[in-house]
């Protein structure tokens, strides 16, 4: 797919390995520092709250600023943040507060990096290569973020909190170097078309009461364009709402599962064992990403996407009902497979049905809505853990997951079948 995509791919791998280490390590560091279940849930909430607060603006930035520049700046900020966390952990500073602050930086960075990657793919590969390019990135994300990252994080935290934070910082530095390599190929490919794309993405002066001389109003108009396009597009709107409901479940699970899994929780795992359990989830995602195109052709998009609905149930129901470790692990594998399939197919639909100058803003608008459910789920879980316990939170999440699966089946039959047949079943 060319050297330019290679740099994008390498940078995504390094950054997502850093994400896998830090997203797993942050709650473990807080747990080791004596944080309560509510404080651990707060870490998960802070790590995901950036999407509803900042996501729309992240899309506007990505549609105006070249992806290499965004990726370099954001990875530099992450290096600073996690180097600071490593230093505070080394001197026995306020670790729980430092973890919460690092989680906020992680979340803000994710809005920009993920949006930049999605917007960059159709600019560095031909249209015919969109599905394999997205599948390759998805497999890499799963390998780095979930297969390698969690067990590495568990081992590093067992060594020291400082080691885990410093490793994350080093990986983000590698991602920043990849952004430097990406920039040269990016300039060659897009120098001629950059001006026309920027012109097409900008709202006309008459679109805002303040006219072209009001930058704040113009920026707000650009942000609203992405949200308006998403909401007027029945297929993308429906997928976004369905994703939000399922992410509510994932947010609840993320907030409390570490308490359920790690000693003295019912599963009795060590930090390293917890990392390996998350690795099982990644294995499902990697396998699914390799066969998504074939499954889509053979079964159709509806059946393949329904795997994610079943996987979301399997993510929480075994723990809610006190199932043994092997059942919980099997559910994690199915959840990882379904999540990977969903992301690949929905990414291709978005890239095929969105104008080039709007991809960043439409993607960000979708993530604001769908991923905005993650901090909501985490906050609900944090409150619920104090009222009904961790098991009660997981039981409530299981109920929501079943409702989401029923909702997908109904919406598919009534509204989406024909649209998927034309947009999603393409190879």
Q: How would you portray this structure in words?
A:
With 427 residues, this protein is mostly helical. The chain has one domain: MFS general substrate transporter like domains (Growth Hormone, Chain: A), CATH 1.20.1250. The protein has helices at 3-32, 37-48, 50-64, 67-90, 95-124, 130-159, 161-190, 194-201, 215-232, 234-261, 271-299, 301-320, 325-353, 359-371, 373-387, 389-423. α5 runs antiparallel to α14, α6 (130-159) runs antiparallel to α11 (271-299) and α11 packs across α13. The protein is globular, with a radius of gyration of 21 Å. Residues 192-214 and 422-427 have low confidence and may be disordered.
What is this structure, in a nutshell?
This protein has 427 residues and is mostly helical. The chain has a single domain, classed as Growth Hormone, Chain: A (Up-down Bundle), CATH 1.20.1250. Helices cover 86% and strands 0% of the residues.
Which architecture would the CATH scheme give at its second level?
Up-down Bundle
Helical content class? over 70%
| Spans where pLDDT lies below 50 across 5 or more residues | 192-214, 422-427
What pattern of helices and strands is seen along the backbone? HHHHHHHHHHHHHHHH
| CATH level-1 class | Mainly Alpha
What's the average pLDDT? 79
Radius of gyration: 21 Å
CATH level-4 homologous superfamily = MFS general substrate transporter like domains
Q: Tell me the number of helical segments per DSSP (H or I, 4 or more residues long).
A: 16
Largest sheet, in brief, is: none
Measured between the Cα atoms of the first and last residue, the distance is: 17 Å
- Which structural class should the secondary elements be placed in? mainly alpha
Per the CATH scheme, the topology name is Growth Hormone, Chain: A
The overall number of domains is: 1
In what range is the share of β-strand residues? under 5%
DSSP strand count: 0
Shape: globular
């Amino acid at each position: 797919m060319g050297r330019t995509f290679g740099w994008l791919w390498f940078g995504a791998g390094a950054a997502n390995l850093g994400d896998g280490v830090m997203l797993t390590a942050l709650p473990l560091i807080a747990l080791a520092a004596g944080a309560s279940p509510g404080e651990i849930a707060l870490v998960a909430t802070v790590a995901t709250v950036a999407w509803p607060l900042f996501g729309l603006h992240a899309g506007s930035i990505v549609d105006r600023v070249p992806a290499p520049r965004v990726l370099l700046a954001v990875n530099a900020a992450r290096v600073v943040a996690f180097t600071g966390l490593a230093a505070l952990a080394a001197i026995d500073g306020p670790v729980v507060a430092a973890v919460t602050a690092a989680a906020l930086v992680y979340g803000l960075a994710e809005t920009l990096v993920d949006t930049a990657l999605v917007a960059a793919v159709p600019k560095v590969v031909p249209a015919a290569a969109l599905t394999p390019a997205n599948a390759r990135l998805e497999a890499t994300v799963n390998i780095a973020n979930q297969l390698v990252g969690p067990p590495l994080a568990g081992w590093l935290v067992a060594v020291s909190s400082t080691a885990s934070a410093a490793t994350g910082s080093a990986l983000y530095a590698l991602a920043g170097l990849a952004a430097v390599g990406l920039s040269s190929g990016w300039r060659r490919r897009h120098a001629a078309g950059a001006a026309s794309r920027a012109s097409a993405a900008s709202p006309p002066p008459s679109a805002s009461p303040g006219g072209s001389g009001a930058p704040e109003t113009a920026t707000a108009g650009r942000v609203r364009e992405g949200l308006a396009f998403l909401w007027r597009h029945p297929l993308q709107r429906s997928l976004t709402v369905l994703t939000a409901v399922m992410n509510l479940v994932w947010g609840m699970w993320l907030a409390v599962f570490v308490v359920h899994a790690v000693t003295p929780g019912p599963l009795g795992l060590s930090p390293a064992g917890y990392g390996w359990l998350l690795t099982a989830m990644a294995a499902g995602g990697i396998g699914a990403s390799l066969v998504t195109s074939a499954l889509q052709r053979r079964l159709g998009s509806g059946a393949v996407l329904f795997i994610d609905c079943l996987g979301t149930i399997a993510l929480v129901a075994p723990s809610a009902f006190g199932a043994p470790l092997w059942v919980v692990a099997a559910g994690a594998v199915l959840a990882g497979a379904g999540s990977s399939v969903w992301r690949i197919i929905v990414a291709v639909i978005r890239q095929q049905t969105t104008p080039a100058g709007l991809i960043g803003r439409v993607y960000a608008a979708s993530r604001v809505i769908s991923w905005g459910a993650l901090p909501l789920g985490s906050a609900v879980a944090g409150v619920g853990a104090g009222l009904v316990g961790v098991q009660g939170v997981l039981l409530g999440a299981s109920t929501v997951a079943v409702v989401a699966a029923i909702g997908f089946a109904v919406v598919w039959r009534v509204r989406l079948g024909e649209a998927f047949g034309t947009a999603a079943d393409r190879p």
